[in-house]
Every structure is written in structure tokens, then in C-alpha cells.
């Protein structure tokens, strides 16, 4: 095969894996929108907060230490050596569940039956609050996140693909980041677990019932408030997974919340109510933006990925306003 | 109608007086960013800036006997907020603005000039502001982006035995006014030295750079330069490590050169280089005083953990340059209570010798700095610093060296002339 052809394959492969990373963020949006009709603006900040909390537990950092030290003149920063990855992840999940409970108790409960735009505005407020709260709790410095997932280019894959090139051509083998491969595996596992949970558990069925029709679900005794806590907890866990994957690449820092921007075109394309849509949408956006940057980017100065993802999503929107897998909204008079 | 006009004139006069009248303190606004995506870089700089003035107050009783007052205003690295900060603080007797953002600097150039308040965009902002004949109130000493680009190319030439013909240099840059600054210089230098230049833009914030680094892996440039900020730097260094790009051939500008940028990549960042306009580490006498008078007395702006880091040093250096300019202004005008106009004069007459630096506890911290009416860019010297991942320290691996003045000065003259023509500015006569 010619190196040019292999380069194109490489771009497609990397696009697919980048798409999976976008999907991880988009999944959290879909879960909450599906169950409650709320577009959760705070999903990106939830990923940041979860990652900050995980690193805090891992490193043994005392929460609010800066505040405590300023108020009481103390010099406490760490309570010890920290804890192992498993325990830190479990504790972070518990924090995200507590967060979901608090969101329901303090925000959502008071906004039942309000228009979707009010709930959306509430999540904007939540995002700003959480960003400030995360800063106060864990500090704004960049933190290194290592949960033992390997990263870097795969030597094995480079060696295998090098032999595919036409003999005599200067080809160094195909590049894939091992971290991206892990992210793909984890995303697939996550989607399978979510689907099994929603199909085969009582709570999952209740979630689907609420997603289908709030009023009907209420009439058969399903507690909307409990469902909201469960859904926000699951979205929190998904945010933790996204935070781990993105944070492993760049360190955990406040720009992590901006990964939500990469999820929006995925949602527009895949639909706001479909878990498979979030995955397929992510893959299409990932491959589309990478191929466009590869083929057209050099001709127009590069840096096309951010805007091209939205152009691609808008193009799909013209033909399927509800997204590829979204539910068609039929308003009857 | 007449009364309305009189009232308006009175208000305008009061505002002008408010902006220019000397106050009891010497006011140094700090347009910092302690929140948002760029906070990890904004915090150490702001701490260094603030702590140095605290040191002067605690140890020396201020500057020339007048206490310095740092006036912080949070910009979040957002240009609109930066302009708001300027507008809300200029009436407090602000002597000089350090915007810490190229975008904010661009907005303040006409405003501050009209208000008669100097701006010090130290090593950033509009490069051609180095021409003091056109930019009377804007200063960017001790070096500019174009100096940085030229010094990096000079270093690469040294590495390559002086011959860059047919070599390929790629520039990975933040797709913003800041990131695009060095392009013109690198293009001119490419014509002169015969190297090929590849430009790779990265959109804000720079969290995803797979395409750019796949292209680098395909094209294998001999050197990669970086003009990044914030998360873009960390991701770029991580991606370079992932594709196993030789780190000692990867060179950043001074804003891509802090501990924050290299630590997330761990050992893989070892050998990464960057250009610097001041020294690294905490091995300077001033740190003893900072610990004694500021940190240990609980008066530090932060928790004291940033002392000696690259960006803390830079903030402290900016404060030192500002205080020395204020001292010069006091000497010129024979008064301790200086106004922004006097401060401008002080900045334009700044002459910071090595002997003075040693007195300040900053011996060999950076090159000597002298500024004059025509040259607001200072000496334009830079050294190359390199990261040692095992030790977790930067070290300077070259002497401070000058930029290619033939190329850089011609570009400054051309760009500033275009600015003067666009804005109907008659260049000042600075003598011979």
C-alpha cells in the first residue's frame, strides 16, 4: 500500500478514537436529557470536578486547605501519602452521588414543572458554582493524573503496519495512542453496562419509563425525584470516566471543563436522547474533522477542527433536525 | 443646555484629574487571572508581582519612601474583562498597567495612550510597540516575540553548525493574535537562512491536537517551535512525547516554558527547551528577603509554594522593573509622589545595570536593561533554558544572546510605520 493511503487510514483511526473521547463527554449530556429533558450545561464542569476530586484523594490533599490555612493560620496541605487508585475512584464515585443528591435537593426539586429554559439556566449557574467550588476545594494548580492507564504511541502497531507499506517507501508505521485504545475499550464497556442496566434492572426500566413519559411514570408510582438522583449519579460517574481520560492527557486543570464544547456537535448530530447516537455521532464528528483537517486544513491555514465539527453537525441538522438517532418531536394542537 | 455642558466639562475635568493626580500611594494595578482555564499560569505571576511590592513596603518602606499599592483586578484572561479592569482602576492613580495578555494589550494601546498611562507588556503584546517613536506609552522591554523567534532560530543554527539550508522548522501556534506574532519574523528568517517553515495552528484552548502532531510525525520537521499558552502547552508536550519527537529539538517561547507545561508529561518531557529573558530557580539573594519579610510573616499573596518557579520569577521581575522605573521617575522629577506621566518618563529612561541588579539581590538574574525614547523594547536578549525531568528543574544552557537586529528592526520599523499611518500618528523626534 502507498504511504499516502496508509496516512489516510491513520487519520481515520485516530479520528475514530478522538470521536470516542468526545462521546464520553456527550454520554453524560444524553443520560440527563433523556431522563429529565434538561440540557445539563454543567456536564463539562462535572468532569473537571470529578477529576479534581480523584486526584485530591489520590494525593492525600486536604479539601479547602487554602481556606482553612487562611482562616486559622495553619499550614495543613496533605493528610498523608494519599490512597490507592481503586479506593480513590470509589470515594470519588461516592462524592459524585452525594453531589447528585444535593443537586436534586437544592436545585431541581424547586424547579419541578418549570420550563426547560429555566432548568437550563439553573445548570449554567450550577456550572459556575461548581467551578468556583472546585477551585476553593482543591486549588487551581495543574495536577498530574495517573490511574495506571498506559499512554503513548504503540510500538507493536507501528511495527505491524510498517510492513504494509510498498517496499522501498519511506514509511514509519501507523500511529495510535495506547491511551485512546483504552478509552475506546472503556467507552464500549460503559455503553454495554448502561444498556444492560436500563434493559434488565427494575431501576433501569423506571428510568426508561420516566424518559418515555413523565406523567405516566408518576401515575404508576415511580418517584421522579429518586430517578433524577440516580440519573445525575450515573452522569457523574460518566463524567468521572471522561475526566480521567482527558485529564490523563493534559493533566487535571480548569480548561478540562471546556471539553463540553467538543460534545455539542456530537449531540446535535447523534441526537440528545440516544446513547448509541452519542457514540455514532462522536465517531462521525471525530473522523469528519480529522479528515477535513488532513485534506483541506493545509490549504486554508489549518485549525479547522473546532468549526468544522459544528458545520458537519449543522449539515446533518438540515436533514434530520432531531439528530441521527434522536426522537422525532411531534407537537399536536 | 449651557448648564449641562458646564456640568459635563466639570465631570470630564474631575475624571482627568482623578486619572493623573498623585495619590498617597504608588498604585500598580495587577490585571491578573486567578480563575478560569489559564489560572495555573496567572496565579504564580500575580503572586510574584504582588510579593515583590510587599517586600519593598516591608523592607524599604516603599519606593522612595512612598508605599506601593498593588490593585488586583481579575480578568480571567478575557479581553473584555481586562478592558473593564483598566477602566475601573485607572482613576485610582494607576501608574502602569501590566495586562498579561496580548489581546488585552492590543485593546489598551489606544486607550492608555489617550489617557496618558503607560503599559508594560513585558515580553508580549504588539511587538512593534518596541518603536517608542510611534508608541509613546507602550513598552515591551526587555524583549519581544520577534526577538524570541530570532534567538530560537539562532540557537538552532548553532546546533546545526550554522547551516539551516533545506532544514524544516514547524511552528505549532495558538490560533490567536498572540500565537501568530512570530510568523512574519520566522518567514523573513526562512528567506535569509533557507529553511522551510511549516505552520500548524491550534485552536483555543488546545485540548485536542492530534491532527497537528500526526502531521509532524508524517513530515518529520527538524525542529518544532511552540507559541502556546495554558493547556495547549501541556498537551503539545505530551503529544510530542507520544510520537517520540526528540525533546531537545522542541523549543517553546517564554510563555511555553513553565513547570506547569512540562510536569504533566513526566519523564517524557525531559530535554524540552524554551527561550527565556530572565534567570530560573530561586538561587538569588532576593529570595532570602522574600522569605524573611513576606512569606514568613504571612504577607505573601499565595501560600509561598510558587517561589522560584518560572512564572513567579517573571511576575517578580515585572514588579522589579516597574519599581525601578518608578524610582527613576522620582529621580527625574524630584518628587516621590509621581504621576502616570512621570512614570512614563521613568520607564523611558530606565537603565538597569548589573551592579543595580546585584544590589537588589538579583545578580545575574537577567541582562542589563536600558530603554530610551526610540527603543521601548529593551536589549532584546534571550537565553535557552532546558528542562531536567529527573531533577524537576530548568537550567539555562546558553548565555544571553541578541536577536538578528537586521531582520527584527526592519520588521518593527515596517509594522510601526503602518500603525502610525493607520492612526494618523506623527512619530516623535527622538534625536539621532
Task: Note down, in words, how this protein is organized.
The complex is a heterodimer of chains A (333) and B (432). Chain A has one domain. Chain A is 68% helix and 0% strand. Chain A has 13 helices and no strands. Chain A has helices spanning 3-36, 43-59, 65-72, 85-106, 116-138, 155-162, 178-200, 202-212, 214-219, 224-250, 260-270, 275-295, 305-319. In chain A, helix 1 (3-36) runs parallel beside helix 7 and helix 2 packs across helix 10 (224-250). Chain A is globular, with a radius of gyration of 22 Å. In chain A, 47% of the residues are buried. The mean pLDDT of chain A is 90. Chain B has 432 residues and is an alpha/beta fold. Chain B has 2 domains: 2-143 and 282-380, Rossmann fold (3-Layer(aba) Sandwich); 145-276, Response regulator (Rossmann fold). Chain B is 44% helix and 14% strand. Chain B has helices spanning 2-20, 39-60, 79-89, 102-115, 145-159, 177-180, 183-193, 210-219, 231-242, 259-262, 285-295, 310-333, 340-348, 354-359, 405-422, and strands spanning 26-32, 68-74, 119-120, 138-139, 168-174, 196-202, 223-227, 250-252, 273-276, 351-352, 369-370, 381-388, 393-396, 401-402. In chain B, strand 8, helix 10 and strand 9 form a beta-alpha-beta unit. In chain B, helix 2 (39-60) packs across helix 12 (310-333) and helix 12 (310-333) crosses helix 13. The N and C termini of chain B lie far apart (51 Å). The model of chain B is unreliable at 9-23 (pLDDT under 50). The interface between A and B is large, with 46 and 40 residues.
Amino acid at each position: 500500500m502507498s504511504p499516502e493511503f496508509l496516512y489516510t487510514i491513520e487519520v481515520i483511526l485516530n479520528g475514530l478514537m478522538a470521536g470516542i473521547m468526545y462521546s464520553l463527554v456527550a454520554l453524560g449530556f444524553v443520560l440527563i436529557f433523556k431522563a429529565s429533558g434538561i440540557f445539563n450545561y454543567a456536564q463539562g464542569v462535572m468532569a473537571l470536578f470529578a477529576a479534581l476530586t480523584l486526584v485530591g484523594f489520590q494525593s492525600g490533599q486536604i479539601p479547602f486547605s487554602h481556606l482553612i490555612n487562611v482562616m486559622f493560620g495553619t499550614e495543613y496541605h496533605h493528610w498523608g501519602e494519599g490512597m490507592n487508585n481503586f479506593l480513590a475512584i470509589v470515594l470519588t464515585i461516592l462524592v459524585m452521588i452525594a453531589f447528585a443528591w444535593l443537586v436534586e435537593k437544592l436545585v431541581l426539586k424547586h424547579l419541578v414543572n418549570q420550563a426547560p429554559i429555566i432548568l437550563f439556566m439553573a445548570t449554567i449557574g450550577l456550572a459556575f458554582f461548581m467551578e468556583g467550588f472546585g477551585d476553593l476545594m482543591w486549588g487551581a494548580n495543574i495536577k498530574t493524573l495517573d490511574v495506571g492507564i498506559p499512554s503513548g504511541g504503540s510500538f507493536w502497531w507501528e511495527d505491524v503496519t510498517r510492513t504494509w507499506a510498498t517496499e522501498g517507501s519511506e514509511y514509519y508505521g501507523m500511529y495510535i495512542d495506547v491511551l485512546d485504545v483504552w478509552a475506546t475499550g472503556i467507552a464500549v464497556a460503559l455503553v454495554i453496562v448502561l444498556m444492560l442496566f436500563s434493559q434488565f434492572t427494575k431501576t433501569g426500566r423506571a428510568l426508561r419509563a420516566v424518559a418515555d413519559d413523565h406523567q405516566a411514570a408518576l401515575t404508576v408510582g415511580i418517584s421522579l425525584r429518586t430517578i433524577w438522583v440516580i440519573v445525575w449519579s450515573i452522569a457523574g460517574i460518566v463524567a468521572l470516566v471522561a475526566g480521567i481520560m482527558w485529564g490523563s492527557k493534559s493533566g487535571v486543570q480548569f480548561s478540562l471543563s471546556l471539553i463540553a464544547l467538543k460534545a455539542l456537535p456530537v449531540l446535535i448530530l447523534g441526537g440528545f436522547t440516544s446513547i448509541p447516537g452519542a457514540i455514532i455521532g462522536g465517531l462521525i464528528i471525530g473522523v469528519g474533522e480529522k479528515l477535513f483537517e488532513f485534506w483541506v486544513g493545509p490549504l486554508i491555514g489549518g485549525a479547522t477542527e473546532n468549526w468544522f465539527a459544528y458545520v458537519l453537525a449543522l449539515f446533518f441538522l438540515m436533514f434530520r433536525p432531531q439528530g441521527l438517532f434522536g426522537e422525532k418531536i411531534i407537537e399536536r394542537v | 443646555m449651557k448648564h449641562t455642558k458646564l456640568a459635563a466639562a466639570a465631570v470630564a475635568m474631575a475624571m482627568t484629574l482623578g486619572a493623573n493626580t498623585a495619590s498617597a500611594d504608588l498604585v500598580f494595578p495587577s490585571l491578573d487571572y486567578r480563575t478560569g482555564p489559564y489560572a495555573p499560569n496567572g496565579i504564580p505571576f500575580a503572586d510574584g508581582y504582588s510579593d515583590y511590592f510587599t517586600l519593598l513596603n516591608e523592607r524599604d518602606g516603599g519606593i522612595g519612601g512612598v508605599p506601593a499599592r498593588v490593585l488586583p483586578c481579575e480578568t480571567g484572561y478575557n479581553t473584555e474583562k481586562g478592558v473593564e479592569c483598566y477602566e475601573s482602576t485607572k482613576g485610582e492613580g494607576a501608574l502602569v498597567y501590566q495586562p498579561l495578555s496580548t489581546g488585552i494589550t492590543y485593546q489598551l494601546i489606544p486607550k492608555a495612550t489617550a489617557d496618558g498611562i503607560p503599559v508594560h507588556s513585558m515580553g508580549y503584546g504588539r511587538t512593534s510597540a518596541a518603536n517608542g517613536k510611534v508608541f509613546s506609552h507602550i513598552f515591551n522591554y526587555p524583549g519581544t516575540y520577534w526577538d524570541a523567534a530570532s534567538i530560537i532560530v539562532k540557537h538552532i543554527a548553532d546546533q546545526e553548525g550554522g547551516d539551516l539550508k533545506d532544514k524544516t522548522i514547524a511552528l505549532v501556534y495558538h490560533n490567536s493574535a498572540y500565537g501568530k506574532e512570530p510568523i512574519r519574523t520566522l518567514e523573513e528568517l526562512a528567506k535569509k537562512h533557507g529553511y522551510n517553515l511549516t505552520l500548524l495552528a491550534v485552536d483555543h484552548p488546545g485540548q485536542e491536537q492530534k491532527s497537528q502532531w500526526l502531521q509532524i510525525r508524517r513530515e518529520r520537521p527538524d525542529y518544532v517551535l511552540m507559541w502556546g499558552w495554558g493547556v495547549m502547552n501541556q498537551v503539545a508536550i505530551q503529544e510530542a512525547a507520544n510520537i517520540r519527537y526528540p525533546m531537545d529539538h522542541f523549543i517553546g517561547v517564554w510563555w511555553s516554558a513553565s513547570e506547569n507545561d512540562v510536569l504533566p508529561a513526566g519523564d517524557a518531557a525531559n530535554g524540552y527547551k524554551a527561550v527565556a529573558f530572565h534567570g530560573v530557580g530561586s538561587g538569588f539573594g532576593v529570595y532570602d528577603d522574600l522569605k524573611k519579610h513576606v512569606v514568613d510573616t504571612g504577607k505573601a499573596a499565595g501560600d509561598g509554594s510558587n517561589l522560584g518557579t518560572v512564572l513567579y520569577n517573571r511576575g517578580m521581575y515585572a514588579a522589579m522593573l516597574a519599581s525601578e522605573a518608578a524610582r527613576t521617575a522620582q529621580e527625574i522629577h524630584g518628587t516621590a509622589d509621581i504621576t502616570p506621566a512621570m512614570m512614563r518618563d521613568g520607564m523611558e529612561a530606565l537603565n538597569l545595570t548589573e551592579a543595580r541588579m546585584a544590589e537588589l539581590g538579583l545578580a545575574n538574574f537577567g541582562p542589563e536593561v536600558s530603554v530610551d525614547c526610540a527603543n521601548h523594547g529593551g536589549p532584546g536578549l534571550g537565553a535557552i533554558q532546558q528542562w531536567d525531568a529527573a531533577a524537576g528543574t530548568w537550567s539555562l544552557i546558553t548565555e544571553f544572546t541578541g536577536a538578528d537586529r537586521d531582520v527584527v528592526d526592519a520588521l518593527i520599523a515596517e509594522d510601526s510605520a503602518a500603525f502610525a499611518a493607520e492612526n494618523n500618528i506623527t512619530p516623535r523626534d527622538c534625536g539621532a
